[in-house]
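To close the section, here is one more complete example, presented without commentary so you can practise reading it yourself. The ligand is SAJ.
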Amino acid sequence: MEKICVIGLGYIGLPTASMLATHGFEVLGVDINSEIVKIINDGGIHIEEPGLHTLVQAAIKSGKLEAATDPEPADIFIIAVPTPFTKEKKADLNYIKSAAKSIAPLISKENLIILESTSPPGTCKDLLEPIFKSFDLKVGKDYYLAHCPERVLPGYTLKELIQNDRIIGGIDKESAEKAAQFYKVFIEGNIYLTDSTTAEMVKLMENTYRDVNIALANELAKICEKLGISAWEVIKLANLHPRVNLHTPGPGVGGHCIAVDPWFIIEKYPDDTEIITLGRKINDSMPEYTVEHIRKIVEGIGNPKIAILGVTYKGNIDDTRESPAVKIIAWLEKIGIKYSIYDPHVREFKYELSSLKKTFKEADCAVILANHDEFRFLHPAEIGKLMRNKVLFDTRFCVDHNLWKQNGFKVYCLGVG
Ligand code: SAJ
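Output:
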C-alpha cells in the first residue's frame, strides 16, 4: 500500500488528503501551522467546505490520515501550498520552494512528486527540477515529477475533486504516466496527459478565460446602466444563443485564483498580454465603481449608515481572501461613510462583524456584496422596520427585487439603469 505525503492542508490539500485516506491510502498531511495540525488530528477543520468535516472525521477515525508539521518519507509527495502574489503582482513562489526543500532530503526509491499548486509557466522545469538537482536527485532516475493542477470550485470541492477531468503534465513521459496511474485510483473524470509547462498554462488560461469574460460582463453592466436597461436581462437572453456564455457582473473579482492567476502570465509576457491586462484592470475597477454608486445613493442624507451584507469573495463560502468587500469597506472608511457588516458565513474578518439586527438598525441603505443563499430568505418587511431609510443596493442580483419593492424599498441593482 502506498504512503502519500500531502504538503499544505488548505482549501485543496486538506480535502485531497482526507479523500485519499478514505480511498485506502496511508496519508500524512503536513502544514507549517501547528494549530491547524492539532485541529485536524482532533477530527476538526479550519476552513468551511460542504461535506469536508464529515470526510476529515472519517479519515482521522480510520487511522489512515494523520497531520504533522514535518514531512516523512513516502511513495508520493503532493505539493498543495498557496501561490500568492506580491505587491508588485509577481508570483510569490516561496511556499513551493520551501515545500520542495523540505521533501528533497526524504526522496528515495523513485518517488513521485506532484505539484498541484497553480504556478507560472515553467515552474516544474525551471524551479523544481533545479532545486531537486541541487540535492543530487536526477529526474527520471531518482524521482518523477508532474504538474496536476487542481481545478475544483470552492463550495463544490469534494464532488469536483473526484468528478472533474484532470490534466497531468509530466516533466517527462514516464512521470506523466506514473502520475496518471495514481490519479486513476480515485478520479472518475477523464485524465489527459501532456508536458508540465502545457499543464501549467492550461490551468492559468482556465482562470484567465473566466476573468476576461467577467470583465466583459462588467463592461456590459456599465453600458446598460447608461442605457437605462438591465444587463442581467441582456445576459439571460444572449445566453440563449447556443454559442454564447456571457458571465455575470459584480462588485469585483475576488478569491485566490481568478484575480491572481492572470498576473502569472502577464508577469512573464507583459508585451503580449493586452487583453488579459485590460480584463484585470476592468475587474479591479469594480470595487471603486460600487463605492461610487453607494456614495450617490446616500447623497444628501445626514451621517448615512450602510448595512453591508456578505463580505466573502462570492456566495455560500467563508473565504474573504482578495474579496472586493475588503476594498469597498476601505473606500467607505476613506470617504467617511459609516457601516455595519453582517455575514453568516464568516467568523473572523479584518473589520468588525455585527448581528443581523445591529447591522440593519438605523441603516440608510442595505448593500448586498456576496450572494449568500441566506439573503434570499430575508424578510424585507421586518428588516425595513429596523432601517432609517428603506433602500437596497444589490450588486449580485441576489434577492427578489419585486418583493423588496412591494415592501416599500427603493431598489438599486448593479448593471440596471
Ligand atoms: N465572478 C463574477 N462573475 C462571474 C463569475 C464569478 O463576478 O460570472 C466573481 C465571483 O463573485 C468571485 C470571483 O469572480 O469574486 C471568482 O469566483 P469563481 O466562482 O469564478 O471562481 P473561484 O475563484 O472560486 O474558483 C476558480 C475556478 N475556476 C474556473 O471556474 C475556471 C475553479 O475551478 C478553480 O479550481 C479555482 O478558481 C482555482 O483554484 O484556481
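Once you have examined the C-alpha cells, check your reading against these statements. The pocket of SAJ is lined by residues 118, 150-154, 206-207, 210, 214, 217, 247-248, 250, 253-255, 257-258, 313-314 (CB under 6 Å). The longest helix spans residues 196-227.
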